[in-house]
Design goal:
alpha+beta; Arc Repressor Mutant, subunit A; SH3 type barrels; five-stranded antiparallel sheet; four-stranded antiparallel sheet; 12 strands; extended; disordered N terminus
Length: 337
């Protein structure tokens, strides 16, 4: 059996969801099935069963021709909700839902946060006290503290209007505060997707005047009005692939950047995927060279500078020169006193 990483909250949740799925099969599962399928030990199997018991999830023994005891969650044990009995939520779906509850931190300050709390209160009324208590405990083990989160207390209506426009594929006219020239501009958009990046909410749109894909910051949309016109989603547009092309939020010409990181930073650099296209070269002194092919010149430069003396941009020469000039200006400011 492969060696398993040290238990974490995420691993435990995956184990529970996996165990529920196996035990929900028509013929259930043996302890050996759980050990093999979930790649866990016998002690973990015992713990999982105890956890399910604490959550109020029943297990019944089923007949087996193999001589090994088989356990099963009764087929009728499906959680349903008032007025939605024809749909219902299974136990794995509930576990996943509560695990994702942590993402509500992004909406701190908006009415969406309150709506999420009310939604979970309604879900809770359909659960047994034991199950609700356990799910609440799981949802509170992992907390989200987004860094430098934006304030969306005044954007609830905008977010709701945009969401409906995305679903209905409705063109909208917006008043947008452009930071580049500090002006509020009015133009039409076809909203495609909302996405989160570094504690902020952003909107992928196609501008109707130019037909290009752009990224807008939600909090800069001052006003939004749906237009009596629908649009066709752009053919062959893949939003995930598109977002992966940029280092952060600036989409443009791809640049290849080589950065040397000191040995003290090498493990940190290796453990993450910094760009969709990257390569890491190990150096004899323990340092590493990270090669990125992405867009976002200014963001890459700012990121490299955040490592101080532990990072050195090797290429392109133009970025290296810009950093030398920036450091020279900063140095004069500090030594001027």
């Amino acid at each position: 059996m492969p060696k398993r990483e040290k238990d974490t909250w995420a691993n435990q949740l995956v184990d529970i969801v996996g165990a529920v799925k196996l035990l929900s099969r028509h013929n259930g599962a043996t302890n050996e099935d759980l050990i093999s399928e979930l790649v866990i030990g016998s002690r973990t199997v015992f713990r999982l069963k105890k956890t399910l018991e604490n959550m109020g999830i029943p297990l019944e023994e089923v007949e087996s021709n193999s001589g090994c005891k088989r356990w099963k969650i009764p087929a009728e044990w499906t959680m349903t909700f008032p007025k939605t009995n024809s749909i219902g939520l299974t136990t794995p779906e509930l576990l996943a839902l509560y695990a994702l509850r942590v993402s509500k931190g992004l909406y701190r300050g908006s009415s969406i946060n309150l709506d999420l709390d009310v939604a979970f209160e309604k879900i809770g009324t359909a659960l047994s006290p034991a199950t609700r208590s356990m799910l609440e405990r799981y949802s509170s083990v992992f907390i989200s503290v987004p860094n430098a989160t934006k304030d969306y207390s005044n954007s609830a209506e905008v977010i709701e209007e945009i969401s409906l426009a995305i679903i209905d594929r409705t063109t909208c006219t917006i008043d947008y505060h452009s930071f580049s020239d500090d002006k509020v501009k009015k133009f039409d958009i076809n909203p495609l997707h909302l996405f989160e990046r570094d504690g902020g909410l952003y909107l992928l749109v196609v501008t109707t005047d130019y037909g290009d894909v752009r990224t807008l910051a939600i909090e800069r949309i001052r006003k939004i009005d749906p237009v009596d016109k629908t649009f066709v989603y752009p053919d062959q547009f893949d939003p995930e692939s598109y977002l992966a092309t940029a280092f952060t939020l600036y989409f443009g010409e791809t640049v290849e950047v080589k950065i040397r990181f000191a040995a003290d930073q090498s493990r940190y650099i290796r453990e993450r995927q910094w760009a969709n296209k990257q390569k890491i070269i190990d150096e004899p002194d323990g340092s590493v060279i990270l090669i990125l092919k992405t867009s976002g010149w200014w963001d890459i430069k700012r990121w490299a500078l955040s490592f101080g003396a532990d990072a050195e941009v090797l290429e392109p020469a133009k970025m290296r020169e810009e950093i030398k000039n920036d450091l020279s200006v900063s140095s004069r400011k500090y030594y001027a006193q």
